[in-house]
Amino acid sequence: MDIQEQYDKIYRYCLRRLGNSALAEDVTQEAFLRFFSEGRYRERGQAIRWLYTVAGHLCADQFRRPPTEPLPEDLPGPELPLEDMALRAALETLSETEQELVVMRYVNQEPVGVIAAHLGMSRFAVYRRTAAALEKLRRALKEDEP
Amino acid sequence: MRNDDVIKRLAGAFPGPDPARKRAFFRGLPAPPVRHGRMLLGQAGYVRPVTWAASLAVFAAALAAGRLAPADAVWVTAALTPFAALAAVAERGRSALYGMEELELCTRFGLKSVMLARMGAVGLVHLILLAALAAALGDGGFFRAGAYFLTPYLLTDLIGLAAARRVRGREGLYVCAGAAVLTAGLALALHGVRGVYAPESFHWWLLALAVTAGLAGREYEKTIRKAEELS
Hints:
The complex is a heterodimer of chains A (146) and B (231). Chain A has 7 helices and no strands. Chain A is mostly helical. Chain A has 2 domains: 79 residues, no CATH class; 67 residues, Arc Repressor Mutant, subunit A, CATH 1.10.10. The relative contact order of chain A is 0.12. The model of chain A has no long low-confidence stretch (mean pLDDT 83). Chain B contains 11 helices and no strands. In chain B, α5 packs antiparallel against α8, α5 packs parallel to α9 and α8 runs antiparallel to α9. Chain B starts with a helix and ends with a helix. The mean pLDDT of chain B is 83. The chains are: A mainly alpha (146), B mainly alpha (231). At the A-B interface, α1, α2, α4, α5 and α7 of A face α1 and α2 of B.
């Protein structure tokens, strides 16, 4: 298992859910610290699934927690080109599960088996719903285009 | 716009984490602990093939002796085991022989852990081989044959360890080789003494085994303590 690669995947997953790069990085690091402290690095096949689950819970905790200070809209992070920002905005028009499917499948390039296990769906459902979500995203983007 | 274009754009819309923060995070992580069994197996891989070959050669020679001259197999094997012990002692002193102790002190697994793991791996294999030989050549007396084989092995081991602590480098290895030859010679000479390998003398062998095992244990302890002092 390439732990550095998994780190990037978990970060992107958290970034999609939290929308803030600094927060996403904090949550990613917290997930990895828990991963290492539990000695999970030995379970090669299951590691990424475990990481997604823990990162998902940590992201949910961020929403539950009362904010101690207001988060700036855009903390220092890479500047996104306009068209990427439009894509992110179009992605937000999809349902939560559809967004998760699209990011895991096309951004993180996870195998269908991993996504199916993480979201508790059949492989067939993952194929079908990912294709539908992509089509929806394409249409949303087309509507935005002048 | 096609679906393929959307997929291509998706990767760009989610850039990776800040490389500096990621690097700092991984650098700050403690090294994951390693289980004893895994450490033993890992370090066994670094034992030189010549050490394993020497151990197997002793095993094969003893088996050949058992086939060619079954009546003499026990004392011939007793005379061969010091050479297996020599291979083990040479393996232990490898860091000192090549002046690598300093370097091994700053590696992830310290000199003491590495030495313990390699001593454990070689010792375990030798014990299994000697037990197999005792079962194959012991002619019904497994424990007796075990005592005949282990005593010269441990005697060489303790002389070798004591020598390796006092004489450094290649000279230490020569002293160990000399000890192995002397012990083998002693085992051969004892064959000439009437009744030494007879069942009636077994209690003397047990006593010799207990003494050599005790002294070898002390030498192991001193060797490990020396490695601790270095670290």
